[in-house]
Amino acid sequence: MARGKSLIFGIMVGSVVGATATLLSTPASGKQLRGKVKSQSLEWKELLLSLKLDGLRLKRQIAATSKEGVGLIKDLTQEMKNSVTEWKQSVEPHQQNIHQYLEQIETSLKDLEEKVNSSNKKNA
Questions:
Q1: Distances (CA, A) of 3 to 22, 69, 77, 91
Q2: Strand, helix or coil for residue 28
Q3: How do the pLDDT tens digits run along the chain, 124 residues long?
Q4: Helix 2-25 and helix 30-123: axis angle, to 10°?
Q5: Does residue 124 sit in helix, strand or coil?
Q6: Global pTM?
Q7: Contacts with 36 (C-beta within 8 Å, 6 or more apart), sequence order
Q8: CA–CA distance, 121 with 78 (Å, rounded to integer)
């Protein structure tokens, strides 16, 4: 931000010096010179006022945009939380079913192992 201010200040000072040098080096009467200086100063005042107003508008626009961004981020965060909660609720019953199936398979394997062991003992 400091660079922008110094750049604008440098441009303004350079313009004033250039305008003054031009006005003083041109052959004109004192009355004409004063008229030119007065009109030039009015133009500079209008330009500075315009720059100031543009800066204020930009500042307000940035503030409004940042507030909108914060609101959008909050909404997005809430939607993501809701989606995760819904996903957990839909997956949880399936996890329990899978766990039950795995227990049944484990029990069946133990029963099969016992049958194989008892069959091997009978054959031996």
A1: 28, 27, 37, 56
A2: coil
A3: 566 677 787 888 888 888 777 766 766 667 777 787 788 888 889 988 998 999 899 999 999 999 998 889 999 999 999 999 998 888 777 787 888 888 899 998 998 888 888 877 777 6
A4: 160
A5: coil
A6: 0.42
A7: 23, 28
A8: 64
